[in-house]
Amino acid sequence: MQPRLSNGLSPVFCTIVPPQILDKLSQSDDPLLSGPARRTLEADGAKRARRRLTALAGVPAVRTTAGTPPTTPHRTLYDCRHGTDLPGHKVRDEGEEPTQDASVNRAYAGLGATFELLHKEYGHSSIDGNGLPLIGSVHYDEQYNNAFFDGEQMVFGDGDGEIFLDFTVAIDVIAHELAHGLTQYTANLVYEGQPGALNESVSDVFGALVKQYSLGQSAQEADWLIGAGLLAPRVSGVALRSMKAPGTAYDDDVLGKDPQPATMDDYIETEEDNGGVHLNSGIPNRAFYLLATALGGNAWERAGRIWFDVLTGGELASDADFEAFARLTVTAAKTRFGAGDEAEAVVKAWSEVGVPTLSSPPDPSPSGA
Q1: Angle at Cα 192 formed by Cα 238 and Cα 355, nearest 5°?
Q2: 177 included as an active-site residue
């Protein structure tokens, strides 16, 4: 189990690119592919180990003079200049004009879009509910093939240009990583096994919602891809993951085939990737997609609201499995919308991916009753 700190939070190090992809790349005969992948794996391993040994440094929330959470974000962007010292050199603060660096501007916009969705739609100020400042660092390391949230801030690599492009190009990647902070400050899901897969899935859900919200897309109009535009032209694939059809995001000679399962029938038992957190997240991802498209309209209004209510409701255990989460979504749907279409759609969505929403079948009626 991952360690917990005195403040109740678990130290986390969550990356957008699953380790199995980097492992595959590291074995390539092409040094242009294997070199950056190996360096990224080494850097990620060191960061992950460090998070297990050090406490999260609390970043003070910015509050109004009245003591109420702020209604606007407080963003600060830094440039690592291809080094690894965080946060790096400060290049843009809240309210300042765009810089000449597109990566800085994209990260600034992505952090703002995430804040906007959480605040305007769910009344939640920043990722902690109290206006936590949002910090991002771009141009991390040389040819770094990842983006991550380390419990304190966002960090973006530039990619190697061969497999991955700049990690700020996809707004859902930015929102995905920042949503790990939302989970950290709410349900604090353990980052392993099924709760870890839920942790990853929640980030994909809010990544997709921020993307759809910023583009004004309905559930039917959205592509439901995570990381579209992140893969370089040489890669045979469209994204890192597909919430609509897990297992179909890429099929490439170098990367292999997208291994995500779409239902519990294909659930992957593994000790790698913290028990398959990036793999089995495809199952709850598809459940959310099925719910959002069944309800129609804007996914953040009903489907997203149900997920947010579960995440912030105080009933979700940090070690919750898929069934526990599914049951809570049914309860949340009934609480907010009544025992109608929403609750029925939630039950059906989970049923289609093989996750039951009842803890046990009802007892049969006594004979003669």
Answers
A1: 70
A2: yes
